[in-house]
Amino acid sequence: MKTTITFLGTASVVPEAGNDTASFLLNGTHLIDAGWYSALNMLRYGFNPMDLDCVFLTHCHHDHYLGLAGILFYLRMRQSERPDRPPLHVIGPEADIHRTLDRAHAYLQTDRFPDVGLDPVVTRVRPGDSLEREHFEVATVAGVHSVQAIAYRFTDKATRASIAISGDTARNPAIADLAHGCDLLIHEASSGAIPMDLAVHSGHSSAMDAARVAALASVKRLALVHCAEPLRPDALAAAQAIFANTFLPEPGETVEVAPVRTLPGDRQKLTSN
What is the count of structural domains for the chain? Predict the structure, then answer.
């Protein structure tokens, strides 16, 4: 038994050629955020979209849901290959998830072409909700963003490995509590090594913000995402100065996550930067 996460994309709003916006595939069955090309990227990296159980959206900005219509279309077009496939679950912020799904159906013009319609099971999430899936326990807190945003922690029931995903957020100590003792924290670093001014900018973090959260949470590893390509080298250096076990995942990279044991209250000390 393994817990794995594949980085289908690592980029910010507009991805570079060969990359996609930040989106992640957990154990080949749970998609967290739907980048521009999620269904095709799954195929590209050796996964079958027909195996998808859930799509979790951290929030409903375009770069995090653009691929949702493509996933619905793919599953409907391939439905005859697996007619007994369980329904897809789409899970996301209560404020926007139904509207976003309705817009995906409108884009597919399901009123004109009913044969392309696919109706998933929708779960509206409020910050602080806990969810029980067949294979995962899911905890949540609110992100600090310009729309309702959810940070998730997934704990694999079989391996007890845990992964926390920040989504888009400004500096947010609540994520350190959510991620405490996690084996992997995936955190946005939109501004790279440039400090973010919370009073000016709308709901994003720097690499240093991400590293401080990782240190406070005593996670095992930190992955920086949602960072434009030119900013990545400086972002990695700035984060590693605060939290040494930081890395920049590559598009298509799969990481096996092994559980780490952390004593209660055992938090790493922040280093100065």
Answer: 1
